[in-house]
Amino acid sequence: MPYDPSDARSALPGTTATATPAGPAADADHVKFYELPPAVTEGESHTWYGRSQHLVIGYTDLAGEVEFALPGGADECAVLMPDTSTTALITLDGEATKVAGGTLTFVPPQAGTVRLSGEGRVVTIFTARTAPAWARAANAESYLEPHPTVGPLVAWPDPVGGPRLRTYDLDVPGLAEPPFRLFRCSTFMVNYIHPRVGPRDTTRMSPHLHDDFEQCSLLLEGEYIHHLRWPWTTDLSEWREDQHEPCGSPSLTIIPPPALHTSQAVGEDVNHLIDIFSPPRMDFSKMDGWVLNAADYPMPGEV
Question: Global pTM?
Answer without folding.
Answer: 0.93
